[in-house]
Input
Amino acid sequence: MNDLSGRISWADVGLALLLVAVSVVVSRVRRTGLERDIGVATLRSFAQLLAVGFVLDFVFGNHGALTPVVLLVMIGTATLTSASRGKRIPGAHWVAAISVSVAAAATLGVLLLLRIVPAAPRAAIPLGSMIISNAMNTTSLVMARLRDDLGAHRREVEAHLSLGETSTEAAAFWHRAALRSGLLPIVDQTKVVGLVALPGAMTGMLLAGASPSSAIRLQMVVMYMLLGGNAFAALVAGRLTIARLFTADHQLIRSLRRVPG
Amino acid sequence: MGDRFELRDVRVDGDSGPIVKGFSARIPADGLTAMVGPSGAGKTTLLRLLNRLDDPDGGEILLDGRDLRSYDVLDLRRRVQMVGQVPVTFPGSVAANVGPDVDALLARVGLDPALAARDADRLSVGEAQRMCLARALARGPECLLLDEPTSALDTRSKGGVESLIRSLADDGLTVVMVTHDPRQADELADRILPVGTR
Output
């Protein structure tokens, strides 16, 4: 089979940059003011991918023991990104760190324990990165949605609390809505997979010369893995965010419920 | 009867300075006590302390002679029910909102028991406020906290809800009502507790 992946030279990358120039021209003509951002994004992606390439070359080449370190760095970055979406949630960093870590450990753990994928850096790192980045998005969505909903509906929440309900009971309706909003993107993606877009893992395998039938098997594993990983992330993020937005005495935290006197 | 609540030198901090500062009062167990004062004086803030939707930043509050915080908070809120300014209906029927014994409770608050099957969000504002009172009574409280309970109502339903509130106090419930309207306080209350007008 033809492996296209090894045929891309630095000159080819340079040619592909012409397409970036197109987006800069569009931005300038349409006055979107995004030229600078496009430039920064291009430079950043170039530098980041270059660095990742070196790191992965190093780890794959007889330094497989560093795999957990690579995954931990990814979890750390995902935590910081997700926590920045959780402003006004006390301890948002912990919520994000625990949600993403649980999703990664549980999902990757199952794949490795059942020997669905080999315990090799070449499998664990790319799959781990997909789980972590998806769990990060889910965690951000669930945290932000719960904070916004409980704040906007604090009258209803406090009406439940006033009747003697626990914070878990009082938040149940919005908890459900937040879990849905966290899981819908991956559910929808799973529904249309292959019909709207050929997903990344499958694309990569096809470009690398694999047969379509083995490419789809990997893609199936990836989709189911992401569904599972996001479910873990949503579950943990929802539970922990609620615990952070109420006090132990079943009161909404003050920053969510400023009322006129 | 003795005091239901005693507030001692209570302070609540806001984002920019105290909302309530050094507030002390006794609220007897019998009858209707109206907390009256201009808006922004901290009436609602004080009311929310009594069922521990919030806690004071200083001072202490006693319920039946015991520190409010020494009670189990969920038990406390069942004993001390609160009904807000704008009626909050939960999704589902009136019966689902109120719980068992809905017929008797609807009758008690002056609503037709036939409303039990109706969707709660299809009630008028006045009916919804009565339903909220029925839902609170369903928990068997000893005390009712009412935050401007008639301010969202039109003149006609206002009078009806006012006499309902009066009759609940006459039945032996401790009723603490926040109002900005001195006329309403004079007509309804057994005693008036001025807030923020010293």
